[in-house]
Amino acid sequence: MWILLAIYILLIIAISFFPLQIKVRRNILCSPVDLVIFFQHLKNNVMDLNLLKELIYNKEALINFVIFMPLGVFLPLLYEKFKNKKKMISIVILISIIIEFIQYCLYYLGNNQSFDFINIILNVLGATLAYNVYNLILIKMEKLNLNR
Questions:
Q1: Do 122 and 55 touch, CB atoms closer than 8 A?
Q2: Which of 81, 82, 94, 139 has its CA 20 to 30 A from that of 36?
């Protein structure tokens, strides 16, 4: 299981930071933080299914949703303290923010990736969905074992 976790972490690093293009940006005032897009999503998608439709049709959004799903299973499986849903969500938020912050810093070195709040939300939703499915499977398995 630890080998799978290591491979998974390497894949997240590869997807999040590479290809790494280093070229110092001259325009420091250009912000790589997608605040406007984030607030437009909040405004347009409250009580609307457009966010779900975008998730399905937008490759980047789908990747951000799916990429943290294994983490929602690995964390409670390998670490007892992450069987608590709040702790699992907290560490997923922290890891997502760290990744986005590193992308924010790399933006000024010429990388084309930027800090995006929506990525954090999608990462957390993906991990939480996987965590819930994992727990449902565990509950079903326990019920089957009790009925024997």
A1: yes
A2: 94
Report the chain's mean pLDDT, rounded to a whole number: 77
CA distances from 142 to 26, 53, 77, 137, 146 (A): 59, 36, 15, 9, 6
Specify whether the CB–CB gap between 93 and 86 falls below 8 A. Answer: no
* Cα gap 124→104, rounded to integer Å: 19
Residue with the two structure tokens 């499986």: 77
CA angle, 37 then 111 then 31, to 5°: 40
Report which of residues 101 and 8 the model is more confident about.
Answer: 101
- Among 104, 94, 98, 102, smallest CA distance to 127 is for 94
Task: Tell me the percentage of the chain whose pLDDT exceeds 90.
Answer: 26
Q: In the structure encoding, which two tokens stand for residue 137, read together?
A: 């499977």
- Taking the CB of residue 70, how many other CB atoms lie within 10 A of it? 20
72 Rama class: left (phi>0) / alpha (psi -120 to 50) / beta: alpha
Residue 49 identity: L
